[in-house]
Amino acid sequence: MFHLGWFTNYMTPAWNKPWAGNAGRTWANGDFYLDMARQLDRAGFDFIMLEDSTALSDTYGGTFEAELRQMVRAPKHDPVPLVPLLAHVTRGLGVVATCSTSFYPPYLLARTMSTLDHLTNGRAGWNIVTSAGSAAAQNFGMDDLPPHDERYDIAEEFATLVEQLWDSWEPEALLVDHDTNTYIDHEKVHRVDFRGKYFASRGPLNTLPGPQGRPVMLQAGGSPVGRAFAARHADAVVSIPKGVEAMRTYRDDVSRLAADAGRDPKAVKVFYIVSPIVAETHEEAVARKERLYALETERLEKRLLLMSGGDLDLSRFPLDEPLPAIAAASSNGSQSILQTFLDRAQGKTLREAAVADQTESLELVGTPDAVAGQMAEVMAEVGGDGFLVYSGSGQLTRRYITEICDGLVPELQRRGLTRTEYTSPLLRDNLLAF
User: Fold this and answer.
1) 245 alpha carbon, distance to own chain's centre
2) Exposed, middle or buried by CB within 10 Å (0-12, 13-18, 19+), for 36?
3) Residue 162 belongs to what H/E stretch?
4) Is this prediction's pTM over 0.85?
5) Could you tell me the end-to-end alpha-carbon distance of the chain, in angstroms, rounded to an integer?
6) 14, 399 in Cβ contact below 8 A?
7) DSSP tally for the chain: helices H, then strands E
8) Quick one: which of 49, 129, 40, 128 has its CA closest to 96?
């Protein structure tokens, strides 16, 4: 068996595509995502992960024009307030919010996530990001972010402090003892007195420990330093290695790093991002894929915008010539995503590389039965623990959600590959169930 998650954003879904409905005008009130959460819950998804970023970039071409036309990073709303709303309309679905170690104070993050764990009855998660790009830094009063690897040094100290704050209350601290008129056993609440290079906190938290103790932690560890961080702290790792061999290598590396960190590798779940396209026949699924990728101009600009999200303006390079030598390590953005793009661009023009680039680990196109079989074969071959479904930026519709939840998932369940019910009220326990 393997797990299922869904990767999305609290931002505009498809609004000018077939089956978009009126979502372009109504998504911000949350109803679209409440409906989505109900469907994922009914289908037995482990969690919905809400990506986030906090800047509108003008790196590409020096203006906001293309960024806003393609809606790559805006408009986007804060996912944290959405978390308890989604939990309220679901029974077992975990809800994971993205929060940055570059902009949150550790104490505030620990307190917020502990509160969300209560409001979700133990189904809250934190997706750990370090953020990228000078625009985001400037929104928070900084000139720029620290270099890539130092951001992970900061995140390491941040996560360590947050974990200590969550542990500052022992699980049995809450007594509610009417006979002795004692609500809290003060001997089971402890100061932290943390002082590091980047952060300090006296502690303890002033919140009750959440149902999970520590909310579930997710992280997208792509670069070597990111993988090592994820192996030390994450309960689940989000990954986009391209192809079966790269997926297997990634899983083996994370397992090795987790063991080196003294953790059970089986407790670190690896999820691969996929965007399945399913239809009644193989021919219709292929035709749907071709229609999706036929919009070359839109797809081209969107991929270039995504790759220009840090500090590299791809608009300044000729589209029909190969990219000049660029070192991903010289970027202060997401180095792993950029390096993957550069690797795939070798021998291609910039236009060819951008149109061909895919934000998924492998292509899944066909009938629900055929795609379910392919997912089973790949997972058996590469290892790993689950798939994270992603519709593609600006492509999410209620129809696509239904095709996955009512088309693909029943075939996975029929084969005994995914859950048919939640075995625990807690997200962490459901992740560890198999």
Assistant:
1) 22
2) buried
3) helix 148-166
4) yes
5) 7
6) no
7) 17, 14
8) 49
